Amino acid sequence: MFIQADLDDADFPLDVGAFDYVLLLDVIEHLRSPETFLESLRRSRISEGDVKVLVSTGNVAFFVTRFALLLGWFNYGLRGILDLTHTRLFTFATLRRLFEQAGYRIDEVRGVPAPFALALGDGMLARAALAVNKMLIRFLPGLFSYQIFMVCSPLPSLAWLLARAGRAGKEKVESMQHQN
């Protein structure tokens, strides 16, 4: 099944509760209003499924970006954290706050190292830089993570809770009628 949809629209076209996972891998930073999208995504959950939302985005507080800012450089480019198509930039705290305020429980947060193999080739230098980056992420993820990865769960919307209560009430009435 393929469904094409504009994620900047106010209404999400599917019941996300029908899926186990929703992948928002390098998506959220491209939206005009991620707040509106996340609320729409959460409200679209009708089914009882326990859906997990997997999110990744660049970490604007990555030490390379901070160092460039210190030197007075803030240049958008063709890819990376300052990609020309990014409309929003996030840190660990701002991404977490975005999802919590939109009604999601944060289940897991991890830092992702820089893609040194892309920048330096797949040699010894890139592997050493990656190993050092992974170690530094354990101590200061906000500074040394190139990307942020989160697993979230949408909390029930009012419509979902009311529909669930209505179904439970109907089932109870039916079971009582069968007993009589």
What does this structure look like?
- The protein has 180 residues and is an alpha+beta fold.
- The chain has one domain: 3-Layer(aba) Sandwich (Rossmann fold), CATH 3.40.50.
- It is 42% helix and 16% strand.
- The chain has 7 helices and 4 strands; from the N terminus they run βαβααβαααβα.
- The protein has a 4-stranded mixed beta sheet.
- Strand 1, helix 1 and strand 2 form a beta-alpha-beta unit.
- The protein is elongated, with a radius of gyration of 21 Å.
Primary descriptors:
180 residues; elongated; four-stranded mixed β-sheet; alpha+beta
- Count of discrete domains: 1
Share of β-strand residues: 15-25%
- Give the beta-strand count: 4
CATH superfamily: Vaccinia Virus protein VP39
Helix content estimate? 40-55%
The Rg value, from CA coordinates, equals: 21 Å
- Oligomerization state of this entry? single chain
Would you tell me which CATH topology applies? Rossmann fold
Average pLDDT:
90
Main beta sheet, described? 4 strands, mixed
**Helix/strand class:** alpha+beta
Distance between the termini: 45 Å
CATH class: Alpha Beta
Spans of at least 5 consecutive residues with low confidence: none
Strand order of the largest sheet: 1-2-4-3
The number of helices is: 7
Succession of helices and strands: EHEHHEHHHEH
Write the layout of secondary structure elements.
Blueprint: E1 21-25, H1 34-43, E2 52-58, H2 63-70, H3 92-101, E3 104-112, H4 116-120, H5 124-139, H6 141-144, E4 147-154, H7 158-179
Parallel strand pairs: 1-2
Antiparallel strand pairs: 2-4, 3-4
